[in-house]
Amino acid sequence: MYYSALTPFNKTLHPPIPHHHPKLITTIRSVLQYNRRPQLAGETPRVVVITSGKGGVGKTTTTANVGLSLARLGHSVVAVDADVGLRNLDLLLGLENRVNYTVVEVLNGDCRLDQALVRDKRWPNFQLLCISKPRSKLPMGFGGKALVWLVDALKVREEGCPDFILIDCPAGIDAGFITAITPANEAVLVTTPDITSLRDADRVTGLLECDGIRDIKMIVNRVRTDMIKGEDMMSVLDVQEMLGLALLGVIPEDTEVIRSTNRGYPLVLNKPPTMAGMAFEQAAWRLVEQDSMKAVMVEEEPKKRGFFSFFGG
Ligand SMILES: Nc1ncnc2c1ncn2[C@@H]1O[C@H](COP(=O)(O)OP(=O)(O)OP(=O)(O)O)[C@@H](O)[C@H]1O
Ligand SMILES: [Mg+2]
């Protein structure tokens, strides 16, 4: 018996994340594409900060993939790269050459807000907004209030208020983090199943709650079933018990993530879909419906003793 990370099941229609089984993958693809669209819950714009505490656990990957999944589900999305100085959401999305203006220039009066918004040609209802130029420092006085102003300005645009404003938060819990969480009313906490990431996630949860953000859901990223089976990695159930947060998604470790990062082509656009891509897509579904999933304990099927078992197969 082992605690499964990749076989959670959900109370609603969302399909379970499959093991590598071609039949299951086909079924899930059809459920995701043809069955129904998720119902948007809550008031718009849903302002969601994607945060973690620890760096490098997958915040930007999550913002890009969940953001594009939301756009594919028909929602209008503005993804804000609030990782000042070390921004890389534009790279992951393959939009780096199209960012001419940033929020800093909008605030200085050097350009209009719509000039700083970069529309994705693949999914025009997805737009990217960067806070500042790479390796630049933020002007004095730029803080949470500036982001609240930005969210208010996005609400009253001519083309209408976006359904989702996703804020890609910088690592750590200093000024950049505080600025990024200020306008948010929901948070997605990304963690990996290791103790350092969990400790930071726990600290961040406390800070988010202090800031009045009650709706906090977690994504457990880079999960490896083989390591969980070998008891070399914490299970998702363990993570959930330690953090006590609702689970938005479980993303397997997948080399395709790195490949897609380097190509500037987010995973969820891949054809055929990959395991991690489908998991991000499912997380987006739950985000839309303000739903969560359950990690469950599964019994391993006893091995069938066939003809080759005679030879130790
Ligand atoms: N599920 C996954 N499988 C394999 N690699 C992954 C996965 N998720 C993220 N990565 C890789 O981990 C690295 C860090 O990811 P990412 O930049 O999204 O993290 P981050 O939390 O935004 O980092 P930072 O704190 O520096 O902003 C990237 O190289 C990415 O490709
Ligand atoms: Mg990042």
UniProtKB/TrEMBL annotation:
GO MF terms held by the record: ATP binding; ATP hydrolysis activity
Keywords associated with the record: ATP-binding, Cell cycle, Cell division, Nucleotide-binding, Septation
Entry superkingdom: Eukaryota
Gene3D superfamilies noted in UniProt: P-loop containing nucleotide triphosphate hydrolases
Entry keyword annotation includes Lyase: no
GO biological process: cell division; negative regulation of cell division
GO terms for cellular component: cytoplasmic side of plasma membrane; cytosol
Residues holding ATP: K54, G55, G56, V57, G58, K59, T60, T61
Annotated ranges, domain CobQ/CobB/MinD/ParA nucleotide binding: 48-266
UniProt protein name: Putative septum site-determining protein MinD
